[in-house]
User: What shape does this take?
Amino acid sequence: MKTYRTRRSGRPLGYLLAGVLLLSGLALVGYSFLIGDPLASAAVFEDNKAPDNANMTLTVPGMRRVDHVPVYTGAAGDKGALHDGTLHVRGTGWPWREGSNVYIAGHRMGFPGTKSYLVFWDLNVLGDGDKIMLTDSDGTTYTYSVFKSFIVNPDALYVTKPVPGKSVITLQTCTLPDYNQRLIVQAQLIDVR
Assistant: This one.
């Protein structure tokens, strides 16, 4: 009598491995939302208060050239946004989300003839209590009060993270005279109208 060997299929093991990977991925995404990871929460508009689009303008009465300056959302270093106004760094907070850090970068010098020209030239004059206003596309204005300014190296990514217990806006520009570091000004949300 002849016996035949059959080849064992690895399919059940493959299905099990795929299932474990899928569940692990879902658990990781869920954990990211649970701990309030700004990159995870930025991917989903969970608030019904969100405006129709993310267009915003920035006004800082204590600064000479910041009056309804356009704020464009894009990747860090987005040259087009920085050329035409200021840059809301994608993946950081939105003003309508409680506990977020709305991170906005702008040029110190900028480009003549554009809204970026000298836009954050005098960012260093802001002090405690100065106001920063961010207006969304629906006309809602978020008013912040400055509480902190400091200088960091360009690789200090912690300044883009939420500040525990606060809803903040962070403004960033280069330091003078060599542009080697970053001047950071942070302000806490005090009013929404």
